[in-house]
Amino acid sequence: MSDPDLQSPTATLETSAADTENTPPQRRRMTLNMGPQHPSTHGVLRVLLELDGETVMRAYPDIGFLHTGIEKQCEALTWQQVVPLTDRVDYLSNLINNLVYALAVEKLLQAEMPEAVKMMRVMLSELQRINSHCVWLGTHALDIGAMTVFFYCFREREDILRIFEMFSGQRMMTSYIRPGGLALEPPRGWDKAVRKFIDAFPDKVDEYEELLDKNPIWLRRTKNVGFVPLNDLIDWGVTGPMIRAAGIPWDIRKDEPYSGYEKFDFKVPTRTENDVWARYRIRMEEMRESAKIVKQALEGMPDGPWQANIPRVTLPGREKMKTQMEALIYHFKIVTEGMKVPAGEAYQACESPRGEIAYYIVSDGSSKPHRVFMRTPSFGNLQSLPAMVEGKLIADTIASMGSMDFVLGDVDR
Amino acid sequence: MISDQVRETPAVSALIARYPDAVTAGDVHLNELTLEIDPGQIVEVCRFLKSDQKFVRLSGLTGVDWYPAEPRFEVVYFLHSMERRSERIRLKCRLHGEKPEIDSVTPLWVGANWYERETFDLFGIRFRNHPNLTRIMMPDDWEGHPLRKDFPVHGHRYSYTDE
Q1: What was the pLDDT predicted at A21?
Q2: Rounded distance, CA A72 to CA B137, Å?
Q3: Cα(first)–Cα(last) distance of chain B, in Å?
Q4: Which residues in chain B are contacts of A379 at CB distance < 8 A?
Q5: A72, A75, A244: which to substitute to probe chain B, counting the most B Cβ within 10 Å?
Q6: Dist. CA A289–CA A353, nearest whole Å
Q7: ipTM of this model?
Q8: Over the stretch A112-156, which tens digit does the pLDDT of each residue have?
Q9: Residue B52 lies inside a defined structural domain of this protein
Q10: Single residue among A27, A44, A62 that ends a domain in this structure
């Protein structure tokens, strides 16, 4: 079904026009424009569906409605100014975007972070993963008709956003993880807030499962839907929970550990069914595993500075700046012209809630990046949509699209 | 220039044995392996790395513009092997500015489709044998290729005021 020879949108419309003349009226194909403002596309995605009755014969995703030229803008900003843009790429996993950018820049700087910074970054990105999966579960279930789950998931999401607000002053666009460390010192009493949330969270996952696991409508709408052979998934560039639901235990946190993930004890859940149901189960297990990681980070959080001390990169402390000449000079240089990153290129991959997120950064040694390429998971995942829905029922299109968990900001950048 | 460290990498030594003049340079920097490939042989090299050396995934594909230097464009391929302990290889092809063209790798990976369309859209690099080389991010009637260095960040054609 995966036809690499996809036609352009206009061509698709023409074919269907020719169809109408030669085929009997009851076999006429209809071209349906799904989106760009369809609620279950979760953003502005347009899918051209060519229908034969209820069956999708062809699907052509048309993207780019949310293209904001972030990669171009990065080239006009200094290294630190890029951080707020990374938030806006995948707006459901901002901290992980911050993290992958920070790690890529730190790779070029060959800077080592203090243990406390690494641990805090891991804890925050796992909270972010729970947050993102909560939004996914709520909206995916809403698409398929289970409304209650949405309210439950957003209740937990709200708690996590409050924690983020406590840390950074912002609920969503946190920009909290930056090259060189964290943006601010962790607030007083953060550990109590996180502990309160994480102790209660596993029970909340049980609640979601109670609502869905034995729900006959949910089962009928998810089982054996959205199947794509494993080799095709790899060729399409699909990553993350979707590939783990097809049986490959590939998780970048395990295979290429970053920011100290090798110290944590967690499992990589896999399943073999490779359908919407399996993807749902994988994400539920991932929420539990993430909760375990947050707990371990909370127990083992060392004391220490929340920023690395790298002259010319991180701002010196206020006290130092007022008393030492060098510190004052560095402060002035960093603020006025920005930090400089040695020439070279780095590719840093992280595991986002959606799959492999990687930044390829090219520096020419100046205070602005020469090129920032964002290899975003949603872009690769969404590409496999035609393979997943062609030849199936149109109602299953909604379920399949939901199971991909794409974010259009992440696709279009 | 291919450094000895690069030559000793199993995948690279196999590649050089099979296609002696395909690799024009190679380097390991920050533990990342980069190979420069002759643009005419990119499809053969990718096919060899995919089928013989188990680099089954094309993680991504993009361009870099070094304007005003020539050859101006780099097309960068990120290959990844899940079986070889998550090994990664970066392939680069340099293309001249006046008519940047290279063979498409869509016959090897269907997923290269959108990446090549994006690179075409934003850099103006043409991919031969691509099934549907149209704009993907920008509107169909857009002029120019935004990620080129000689394309302005602000003030392109449109004025947002009445003046």
Answers
A1: 56
A2: 13
A3: 55
A4: 114
A5: A72
A6: 12
A7: 0.89
A8: 899 999 999 999 999 999 999 999 999 999 888 888 899 999 999
A9: yes
A10: A62
